[in-house]
Amino acid sequence: MVIEAKYENGVFRPLEKIRLEEGTLVEIHVNRGREAKKAVPIRELGFVGMWADRADIKDGVSYVDTLRNNPRS
Length: 73
Fold this sequence. Notes:
By secondary structure, this protein is largely without helices or strands. Helix content is 14%, strand content 11%. It is built from one helix and two strands; from the N terminus they run ββα. The radius of gyration is 20 Å and the shape is elongated. It starts with a strand and ends with a helix. 0% of the residues are buried.
């Protein structure tokens, strides 16, 4: 899990709401000089929808399941 935070007045403050139990111990790694990168939304990736016109592929999950169950040698 990566949590982006800002250091203010001696306290690390998360930039977004996080789900951790109160009192959870964490380990912080500081990347100085590097800007935090947000993950690219999956819809913006080039492969999304690339099989939309294929009649033999119902959806990505069933296609991967088919490949896993019938591996090619």
